[in-house]
Amino acid sequence: MNHRYLRLGWLVACFLLLSGCADTHYVMRLDPDGSAGQVRKVWPQPPETPRYAYVGELTGENNFHDENEQQRSAGVKFLYWLVGLTAGNREPVVLQRPVSGMVDGQGRILVTDASRRAVFVFDGVAGKLDVWDQAKENVRFESPVGIAPGPNGQILVADAKLGEVIRLDSAGNPVGSFGKGILKWPTGLARDGKRGRVFVVDTYAHDIKVFDDAGKLLDVIGRRGTGPGEFNFPTHLALADGELYVADTLNSRVQVLDEHGGFLRQFGERGLYVGNMVRPKGVAVDSDNNVYVVESMHDYLLVFNRDGRFLMPIGGTGKKIGEFYLPAGAWTDPHNRIYVADMFNGRVVIFQYLTGMKHAQKN
């Protein structure tokens, strides 16, 4: 009995010792395996002037590392193992099938994952990963796809299977929804903060539905067809400088509309060459009005200018740096980083636009 108490007392002492290390601070690294620092991967390759550089990727909790891990003594690590504070055989929390994403005003990277049925929140400032899986009280997300900033710090998430847009507060708590009974299969999502308008791609209805910030339906843009302003299973969209870029997926093109839904222009065509579109999905725009289109069928990120002239590709099928496997969404941030949801590789790949392409287009 005395030996048992001694062992228990020693374990308590271990916990007390470890409690002094409880303020462990984690940092987020975009190259969890260190690959980004080995070779600087750029596109196009020299001798041409590089326009894009590989930054890294997001996969899940593997992106977060103990800032003081290298300084911790072997003895303390042993105590962590002894009292069961190591991960052991636990499966890490990682992305499974990322679909789309956004970067919010706090710099957090939010990624929808249709397989995990959740929103992953990569918080580099706080050094933590959150996973939000509640769409309503006692109701989980079913198939979250589009995501966009909402009014008053809210986050809007389009859930295709639930058939509505879910409102979350900045901490991920459900605070409401809209579109139930109106939306058939909501996917892409964008919000015009100046006018208080939310654009929702309704893929199975072949249109875009426009709501106000209160969730009231204001307009329906388009119908099924192949003409200007008509759609065939549209998926993703982006809003930039008052123009709406829509991935008209089964029409193999991107259509550009004004803020009222009027047709402006289109680009893309079916074909066998790099730069053609077969299954365009994610679409995003940077500060120089370069347009990024995910060509999901052939695993490319295609770069166009504002007028739809093809500039260059990034990608190809695979899992190495700069390769994709059935990618889905794309988005940008204020620092001109481009994020691609590399869906079947279970990661988000990040590139940095090196600027200057806008000027190169004029030469």
Strand content: 35-45%
Q: How many individual domains? A: 1
How many β strands by DSSP? 29
Q: What is the gyration radius calculated from CA atoms?
A: 23 Å
**Strand line-up across the major sheet:** 2-3-29-28-27
- Please name the CATH topology: Neuraminidase
CATH class: Mainly Beta
Poorly predicted regions: 1-21, 79-83, 359-363
Based on secondary structure, the structural category is mainly beta
Mean pLDDT: 88
- End-to-end Cα distance: 86 Å
- Assign an overall shape: globular
Give the name of the CATH architecture.
Answer: 6 Propeller
Major sheet? 5 strands, antiparallel
- What level of helicity do the residues show? under 10%
Tally of separate helices: 3
Could you name the CATH homologous superfamily? Answer: TolB, C-terminal domain
Q: Quick gist of this model?
A:
By secondary structure, this protein is mainly β. Helices cover 9% and strands 40% of the residues.
What does this protein look like?
The structure is a single chain. The protein has 363 residues and is mainly beta. The chain has three helices and 29 strands. The protein has one domain (25-73, 94-360): TolB, C-terminal domain (Neuraminidase, 6 Propeller). The chain has helices spanning 2-19, 74-82, 357-360, and strands spanning 26-28, 42-43, 52-58, 64-66, 98-103, 109-113, 118-123, 128-132, 134-136, 139-140, 144-149, 155-159, 164-168, 174-178, 186-192, 197-202, 207-212, 217-221, 237-240, 243-248, 253-258, 263-267, 280-285, 291-295, 300-304, 310-315, 330-332, 337-342, 347-353. The strands form eight sheets. Strands 2-3-29-28-27 form a five-stranded antiparallel β-sheet, with no helix packed on it. The chain has a four-stranded antiparallel β-sheet with strand order 5-6-7-8, with no helix packed on it. The chain starts with a helix and ends with a helix. The model is unreliable at 1-21, 79-83 and 359-363 (pLDDT under 50).
